[in-house]
């Protein structure tokens, strides 16, 4: 890199290297399905700031909540209950849906949208089980619906720079990875769908948090998982129905690169992703909680990049809309998400059996 | 902590909180058994700078090498071959032995020393197998020899501060740990005892490097291992006789705290130990390669302590000598080291079987 290039490299940490559409194109009109805090406080404000997206319909289990959100947002034309959405009401008013319900409720909404040929942006993990995720893949194929699992790290510039560095051989051959995402949800009370296996699926910490380490490692290393080993444990009363108040798991990826990870919904909020290669190390910390900073060490030289950050949800929505407008496939298609679901299932199976599980 | 205390806390990063003897006491006279680069370049210079120790005898497989080292050091009275050492030559000239031969040669030298009631400082891992390590424990008991496994992290001030912080509840209850020690030994050539299972034992990366993550976690958390899971792999031709060119392993400790670790003898040199608790995180990085810096995060506040460091070998030798002079037991006794050996064996067994192994 010439000294002149340093400036443009730093600029790349807020640059959309994926954008193909002109800024005047769009908007892609979204129905927001599920009006929990993530949709209202993160997704909808991001869409409001976005280049290519607009929220025109909101869908909730509660007609009152839907109505309240309609009244709060100028662009929103209709507030629907889940039943009304399933019945196809106001379906001319949106081009795409964002599904952000409890995991086990994704399938029905994806099916309803895909049947009508709507594009689908579905929160991660895709569903509560591998089987139900396969049904999502099938529904999107049948409806010929462009669909993406909402992996916001795919459009986080720091993560994209990490992938470029690995691809360019900056750290030599990847050898091993450490990943963690932990947070404390006990303060949110006992009544949470994340603690209910009927709604969350196999468990809570690995399903909800561990998936970040798994998917981001896949994305940065361009390698898929081949086997998993894990140990998990629940002790706190809130976690009595799920096996993983805390979990430690190792995912073996192609070329025998090992990612060794932890996840806990009852720990200090922290996250990092560390990739050690034959000639250097990339540390991303914080990694998954809304901002991502990068540290690259090659030999004895370390470069730290501390970014102001982007709105990860805005990037994600605009990326998906850009793909729709440009008529190309997004990276995180349901077939891609299914690999994570099979990995998650292997992690939970290994914790139960104590044995290494092939994926 | 009052502002006044900040100064004394920083001073504690170079303070010997363990020292009981007066500086005039000693010296404890050491026979250095095994004259590889670690003994000559690290241990002997450390002893030369130490408060309580002196090298008076050196022992090598080669009479010429022993003679050479005798000529280089004023305090050294005798240079012996292994046979002469076994036969008890010059045994009045030393009080203690430092055993730094290939792992599988530790036992014979420990036995010879313990039989004569000499104190024993034995490099880690203790021996090549659990069985041979049990024989070391037995030999030291029978000879009533004060013995310690050379865990230099036990007297690294940063590690001791980390233990104090955990004990004081600074990060709440420990939840999970990440540990790594990696380095590149391919540049040292194909002819290394670390790559020969006859001399190294179960393998190379976990035996030689992974033990740092295991033992330091035990030390800092005051918890012992109960089970292990692991995956390992060798690809490079130099590693054809050992299973672990790279390894990822999880050790479950008492109270269901999980330590998830990596070790590789064919990767970029790196090491860290990260302990996440319910209320904070301690990151030690670098951790195991001769210096140790500490970062403590509680809530949103992070304190970084970047120390000039101590000579870890000097601290270790003086600690052992201080124990001898004060007539107390050291922390890292062979019984303590045996727990690591059982853990190492479980890690290798799990890699082979794919199953979780109880310790």
Automatic annotation (TrEMBL), chains A, B:
InterPro entries associated with the record: Gfo/Idh/MocA-like_OxRdtase_N (IPR000683), Gfo/Idh/MocA_domain (IPR050984), GFO_IDH_MocA-like_dom (IPR055170), Glc-Fru_OxRdtase_bac (IPR008354), NAD(P)-bd_dom_sf (IPR036291), XacA-like (IPR049838)
MF (Gene Ontology): oxidoreductase activity
EC number: 1.1.1.424
Segments forming domain Gfo/Idh/MocA-like oxidoreductase N-terminal: 28-151
Enzyme class, first EC level, given as a word: oxidoreductase
Domain GFO/IDH/MocA-like oxidoreductase as annotated: residue spans: 159-282
Pfam families in UniProt: GFO_IDH_MocA (PF01408), GFO_IDH_MocA_C3 (PF22725)
Keywords: Oxidoreductase
Gene3D superfamilies: Dihydrodipicolinate Reductase, domain 2, NAD(P)-binding Rossmann-like Domain
PANTHER family: OXIDOREDUCTASES, TRANS-1,2-DIHYDROBENZENE-1,2-DIOL DEHYDROGENASE
Family that this chain belongs to: Belongs to the Gfo/Idh/MocA family.
The protein's name: D-xylose 1-dehydrogenase Gfo6
């Amino acid at each position: 890199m010439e000294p002149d290039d340093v400036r443009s490299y730093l600029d790349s940490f807020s640059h959309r290297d994926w954008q193909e559409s002109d800024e005047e194109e769009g908007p892609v009109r979204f129905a927001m399905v599920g009006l929990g805090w993530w949709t209202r406080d993160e997704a909808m404000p991001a869409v409001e700031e976005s280049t290519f997206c607009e929220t025109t319909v909101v869908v909730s289990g509660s007609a009152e909540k839907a109505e309240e959100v309609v009244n709060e947002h100028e662009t929103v034309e209709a507030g629907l209950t889940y039943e009304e959405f399933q019945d196809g009401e106001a379906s001319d008013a949106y081009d795409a849906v964002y599904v952000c319900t409890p995991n086990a409720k994704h399938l029905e909404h994806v099916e309803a949208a895909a049947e009508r040929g709507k594009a689908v942006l579905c929160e991660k993990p895709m569903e509560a089980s591998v089987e139900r995720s396969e049904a999502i893949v099938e529904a999107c194929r049948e409806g010929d619906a462009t669909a993406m699992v909402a992996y916001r790290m795919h459009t986080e510039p720091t993560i994209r720079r990490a992938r470029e560095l690995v691809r360019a051989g900056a750290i030599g051959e990847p050898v091993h990875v450490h990943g963690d995402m932990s947070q404390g949800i006990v303060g949110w009370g006992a009544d949470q769908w994340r603690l209910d296996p009927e709604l969350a699926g196999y468990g809570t910490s690995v399903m909800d948090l561990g998936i970040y380490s798994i998917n981001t490692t896949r994305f940065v290393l361009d390698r898929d998982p081949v086997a998993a080993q894990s140990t998990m444990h629940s002790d706190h009363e809130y976690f009595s129905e799920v096996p993983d108040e805390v979990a430690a798991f190792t995912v073996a990826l192609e070329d025998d690169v090992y990612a060794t990870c932890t996840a806990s919904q009852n720990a200090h909020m922290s996250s990092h992703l560390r990739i050690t290669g034959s000639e250097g190390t990339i540390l991303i910390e914080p990694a998954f909680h809304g901002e991502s900073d990068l540290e690259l060490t090659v030999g004895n030289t370390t470069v730290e990049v501390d970014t102001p950050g982007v709105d990860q949800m805005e990037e994600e929505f605009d990326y998906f809309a850009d793909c729709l407008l440009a008529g190309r496939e997004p990276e995180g298609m349901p077939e891609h998400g299914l690999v994570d679901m099979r990995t998650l299932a292997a992690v939970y199976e290994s914790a139960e059996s104590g044995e290494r599980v092939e994926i």
